[in-house]
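Regression report. Comparing outputs from two consecutive submissions.

Submission 1:
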Amino acid sequence: MEKEEKKYFITGNTFAIKDQLKDLGCRWDPETNQWYATDKKLAGKAQKLVPSEPEKYIIGQAPYEMRDQLKQLGAKWDQQAGEWYHTDKQMAAQAQELIAENGRKYFLTGNAHDVKEQLKRFGCQWDSETKQWYHTDKVIGAEAQALIDRGPEKHFIQGNCYPVAEQLKEMDCHWDPETKAWYHFHKETADKAQELVRNGAEKHYIPEVPYELNEKLKQMGCRWDAEARCWYHSDPEVGKEANRLVQDTRERLQGHESKLNKSSIVPALAAEAEHGL
């Protein structure tokens, strides 16, 4: 019976020296996926050719969603051990700190109501238990806190806002007593308000308004110009509508007066005819 030959396996990363191992007479074992030699001295010589592996500094396990961050740090996954590691001790410590911070909530303090939309864009989340905004990233959390501390950005409305002050209030604009100017936190709304002020610089007058339309014009947002002694509106479309209303009312009133005059003239002519005039 033929005696089974003994296999002396060569361990480590042998891929780079496989040709040298072949030249030495080493063979590949498909069952163990390792090179080996049947001679102990030859195996020892082959083992010396295998480059020494760098020391592994264990990082440990980490949430799956952190894999890209760890790879960016240069960390590697050990399939057999089922954990992350790094060949640099300092980077391994940095990776461990990153894992430790993952899931940690950095809460934000102060009045965040006026900047909540910006906080959402930062990726901040609302904690319903503590009723506070927070972020899981320390650096972004610090940026978000700085935003709250300095307050929301004010988009100021330039020009003479007095004629449209009531409309600005309706748009939720605010008055800044320090700068003595109107502003809004949202740029789009501020732009609309600015357009309103630009149009409002011109007064669109509604002349010869019958007294009975005064309340109606007030409801339409028209104002009284004491100097010109005339009603006006800053919006040209509303001004046109008010003028049409005045014109229609005047025509209606004139038509009514005409009927009254005719009804009084007929009896007068009849009386004159009766008396032979």
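Submission 2:
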Amino acid sequence: MSAVPRPTHIETVLIVEDDDSIRRVAELALSRVGGWRTLVAYDGETALDIARQEQPDIILLDVMLPKLDGPATLWRLRQDSATMAIPVVFMTARIQAHEREHYAKLGALGTIGKPFDPMTLPRQIQTLLHDTEPNAPAEPGLGLGMADLMSVLPRRVHELRSAVLDDLDATNPVRRERAVRLAHQLAGSAGTFGSPELGIIAGRIERSLLNADSVATRNAVDELLTRLHAQPTSH
């Protein structure tokens, strides 16, 4: 696959992420720390439309998306003459070396792992682009918006617990898919919200669900709740 031109200057970034909290953190980081204009999409199909219309300088694309996932979205972008030259950076909690190589072969400029540090996310993107230093922040830090987002973590944990118990009580492919998705999202977001231990446990829950190991799943969920309640921010 031919190399995609790298922009010399970033003004607009399209963020494609179905997790509301992670999408909002990325938006805050890129707009307030990076000083960039941000566009957001919740799924691959919407991202394709926005990319055609807005022509962003770069696309930050989640790998695990509903309906049209990240790799399929990238493939569609590369088939369209209007979007084929837009650089794409994947974001994923699954970031093994062979997966980086796979995404690069698909045409991605690079991969950023979840959880990510909001304060250094713009710099990570510019490192991939070999660009200059980030623009001056529009506002110092992330402000109250980030503090508000931190409060969603307990809700996400309990939402995952309910989904997992529903799946264990009545095995159903749709329920299993939802539980796996919630576990994957928490695994990628908890560290960003300052709770990497919860993210590690959520990753174990995701793997045990995929392996249909109900005992390991229940044990991990119990541990997740114990760790959540032990955190000062969970009260």
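Expected: both submissions complete independently.
Actual: both completed, but the second showed a warning that disappeared on reload.
Relevant detail on submission 2: The radius of gyration is 18 Å.
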